[in-house]
Automatic annotation (TrEMBL):
Enzyme class, spelled out: transferase
Protein name as it appears in the record: Aspartokinase
Lineage top rank: taxon: Bacteria
Catalytic activity as recorded in UniProt: L-aspartate + ATP = 4-phospho-L-aspartate + ADP
Transmembrane intervals: none
Protein function: Catalyzes the phosphorylation of the beta-carboxyl group of aspartic acid with ATP to yield 4-phospho-L-aspartate, which is involved in the branched biosynthetic pathway leading to the biosynthesis of amino acids threonine, isoleucine and methionine.
Pathway: Amino-acid biosynthesis; L-lysine biosynthesis via DAP pathway; (S)-tetrahydrodipicolinate from L-aspartate: step 1/4; Amino-acid biosynthesis; L-threonine biosynthesis; L-threonine from L-aspartate: step 1/5; Amino-acid biosynthesis; L-methionine biosynthesis via de novo pathway; L-homoserine from L-aspartate: step 1/3
The ACT domain, residue ranges: 340-398
EC number: 2.7.2.4
CDD domains: AAK_AKii-LysC-BS, ACT_AK-LysC-DapG-like_1, ACT_AK-LysC-DapG-like_2
Organism the protein comes from: Turicibacter faecis
Keywords: Amino-acid biosynthesis, ATP-binding, Diaminopimelate biosynthesis, Kinase, Lysine biosynthesis, Nucleotide-binding, Transferase
Length: 398
């Protein structure tokens, strides 16, 4: 079977006109002889409105009921898109997550796909139908309707593509993946291709084009992914396995993450046990600690800094309140994290030297640095963010 999965986000199906436009795009592929499976999100801001609606009834709505409510958004868009295709004279059928065989596990509102009973989708394809599947939803082992977490339609699309061994095209309101968020740096270049690893790193570090979990699935099952605009025919970005040709470029992108909380604890008596205790307590409260740096001990006292998300501030504060009162704690929230990402860093030295030089020459102070195999991240004051993004982007030719 030669086929393709298309996915359209909420803005691409926001109005009846846009839904008709999407139908035309699907037909163009169908006419090439491809079996088409299409995943759609809810129209426009429907899901946000449903969340708000629940909030007007209850401060803490039951999550099973929330799943039932939120899953209705996609049910509207799949039916309308199917009608649009039928109106153009094509055979099409819409399927909810459950009808498409999408099996999930986990807590309500945060389910994960574990498998897909793909036979039904395949049968409809064999009958020549275009199959339209509701994104973001599935069914758990109890037969309950579940959702996959906000932005989960990307995951539905890539998982279906994996199961069918089809490529996956993600159509959205941006024209592809940029080296830097164009809202932060106008001249940012659109990337022709990016590896799964880089995309994962960019996505989880803040570049919000795709849901990070979908990229993990893509990587695991080697699904070729293509991200482009649903509004025009401009060339988008391929996300695929790393190959040597991408190597010429050492740095692929710069991702920026705001809302970082930086915590510095000093006056800690120098003993490994004291560090263990602090981070055990943070873990117990599910604080996702990111960058950690410890200064060399001075006169028997240590200091350590770490970053977390601002949203975890309450939990971090609770841990700090439990610490020995002789420790000195400082919490700052006006911090951004800039991460320079590139597969080429794996086997080329000198990138960190170059970055430190750029920051030093332009007198951009940084508070913390961490590295992974393919990235270097700096925590900087929010006030320096714009300037740092512009300078690094220029210097690195992003
Ligand atoms: N409609 C859902 C949301 O807004 C899922 C998605 O768009 O991917 O989060
Ligand atoms: Mg989305």
């Amino acid at each position: 079977m030669r086929g393709l999965v298309h996915k359209y986000g909420g803005t691409s199906v926001a109005t009846p006109e846009k839904i008709k436009n999407v139908a035309k795009r699907i037909i163009r592929e169908k006419e090439k002889g491809l079996d088409m499976v299409v995943v759609v999100s809810a129209m426009g801001k429907t899901t946000d409105h449903l969340v708000e609606l629940a909030g007007q009834i209850s401060q803490h709505p039951d999550e099973r009921e929330l799943d039932l409510l939120l899953s209705t958004g996609e049910q509207v868009s799949i039916a309308l898109l199917t009608m649009a295709l039928q109106e153009e004279g094509y055979e099409a059928i819409s399927l909810t997550g459950f009808q498409a065989g999408i099996k999930t596990v986990g807590p309500h509102t945060k389910n994960k796909i574990i498998d897909i009973d793909i036979d039904k989708v395949k049968d409809y394809l064999a009958e020549g139908k275009i199959v339209i599947v509701a994104g973001f939803q599935g069914m758990n082992e109890l037969g309950e309707i579940t959702t996959l977490g906000r932005g989960g339609s990307d995951t539905t699309a890539v998982a279906l593509a994996a199961k069918l061994s089809f490529p996956c095209h993600i159509y959205t309101d941006v024209e592809g993946i940029y080296s830097v968020d164009p809202r932060l740096y106008k001249p940012a270049k659109k990337l022709e291709v990016i590896s799964y690893e880089e995309m994962m790193e960019m996505a989880s570090l803040g570049a919000g084009v795709m849901e990070p979990r979908s990229i993990l699935i893509g990587q695991k099952y080697k699904v070729p992914i293509y991200v482009a605009s649903s509004m025009n025919q401009e060339k988008g970005t391929y996300i695929k396995e790393y190959d040597g040709t991408m190597e010429e470029k050492v740095v692929t992108g710069l991702s920026v993450c705001d809302d970082i909380l930086m915590v510095t604890i000093s006056q800690i008596p120098d003993a490994a046990e004291n560090m263990a205790l602090i981070f055990d307590k943070l873990a117990a409260r599910h604080v996702n600690v990111d960058m950690i740096s410890q200064a060399a001990s001075f006169e028997g006292l240590l200091s350590v800094s770490f970053t977390a998300k601002v949203e975890d501030r309450g939990a971090v504060q609770a841990v700090m309140d439990e610490l020995d009162p002789q420790y000195h704690v400082c919490m700052e929230s006006e911090i951004s994290k800039l991460s320079v990402v590139g597969m080429g860093m794996r086997n080329q030295s000198g990138v960190s030297g170059r970055l430190f030089r750029i920051l030093s020459d332009h007198k951009i102070p940084f508070r913390q640095v961490t590295t992974s195999e393919i990235s270097i991240s700096y925590a900087i004051d929010r006030l320096d963010k714009e300037r740092a993004v512009a300078i690094l982007s220029q210097e690195l030719n992003l």
